[in-house]
Specification:
single chain, 332 residues, alpha/beta, Rossmann fold, 5-stranded parallel beta sheet
Length: 332
């Protein structure tokens, strides 16, 4: 059995991203490359791993990671919304089966897209083995690259964009006692998203620029050290299809505070602290408690390690292969 993902246009994708600024033009280039790629090989099934399938005369499986563009369109730039609206809804009927990464998103797909739940399979993501407790000495060498010391910071990891609700984290941090701010830097680790200038202005307005570090994009191999060195990991996102960073933090033994919305309770369970993402005062209180209460911090670390072991890539891969088999055997 051969399974098609999206290899034929990988190199062309890089060229297109560099020279083409239009989502629509990018889609046309992908489809042309995909079409020519199909000429040289026989494909039994095509799995589109990024929402919008391309024309294919055979069974198609589509992964829908989340419905943020449908439910929270204001948190995405205009050109991305237009691209999504032009292609996503029209091509939904092309899929023989859907994969999504949380029960929360499956429920939303049924409710908002009117998709038969029997056509949707949930495959929870896993956590890589690299995300684990590592010695302080090993982590410190990497942390020094970012001007950080082990155990001296509050961490967020993810793209810096509106949907991640980073403003609430900034406001909560600004409410912490000055003593804690001096002892615990706020580290925002991730690539620059849209409306980044507003985020930087908010940091200045709250007068926390001297104790806030923006690392920029962090390579995968540095992330375990970054998680291990944090006193607490905070992820107040407004909406997630899954929420991999909290899982990675738990696998490193780092206490997690996250939102009580969308898929995040499904991932964190009872192993982390969950708050209303709009409740800045509560977010501040929970951060302060984790920092000040060592026994509370230790308990969360232990619970997080146990919880993270429930999510494996082996299970995700098996569930995905089961979907392929069902579709190829004519069972939707």
């Amino acid at each position: 059995m051969k399974v098609k993902a999206d290899e034929p246009y990988v190199s062309l994708r890089k060229i297109a991203k560099k020279f083409v600024n239009s989502y629509q033009a990018f889609q046309i280039i992908k489809e042309v490359a995909f079409k020519f790629g199909l000429l040289s090989q026989k494909i039994d099934l095509y799995h589109e791993t990024n929402y919008i399938p391309m024309p294919f005369h055979g069974p198609i499986v589509v992964t829908v990671f989340d419905l943020s563009l449908h439910l929270w369109p204001e948190t995405h730039p205009k050109n991305r919304r237009k691209y999504f609206e032009r292609y996503f809804y029209k091509r939904l009927p092309w899929a023989a089966h859907f994969i999504t990464i949380s029960e929360a998103t499956k429920v939303q797909m049924v409710e908002h897209l009117d998709i038969n739940p029997e056509k949707i399979t949930v495959t929870h993501l896993g956590v890589d083995n690299d995300f684990r407790n590592i010695p302080v000495e090993a982590a410190s060498g990497i942390l020094s690259h970012y001007g950080l010391t082990y155990g001296s910071y509050i961490l967020y990891v993810g793209t810096l964009e509106p949907r991640k609700n980073i403003n609430s984290l900034l406001q909560a941090y600004a409410l912490l006692p000055k003593r804690i701010q001096k002892e615990r830097t706020l580290v925002l680790a991730g690539g620059r998203g849209w409306l980044m200038d507003r985020l930087e202005q908010e940091i200045r307005n709250l007068d926390i620029a001297s104790t806030t570090v923006l690392t920029g994009y962090v390579p995968q191999e540095h992330l375990p050290a970054l998680y291990n060195g944090a006193t607490v990991f905070v992820y107040p996102s407004l909406y997630e299809g899954f929420g991999l960073p909290p899982l990675e933090a738990m696998a490193c033994g780092t206490p997690v505070i996250t939102s009580n919305v969308s898929s995040l309770p499904e991932v964190v369970g009872e192993a982390g602290i969950m708050v209303d993402p709009h409740d800045v005062k509560r977010l501040k209180d929970e951060i302060e408690r984790v920092i000040e209460d060592l026994s509370h911090r230790s308990l969360l670390s232990k619970l997080g390690l146990e919880r993270s072991r429930q999510f494996t890539w082996k299970a995700c891969a098996k569930q995905t292969m089961d979907v392929y088999s069902r579709v190829l055997n004519g069972r939707k």
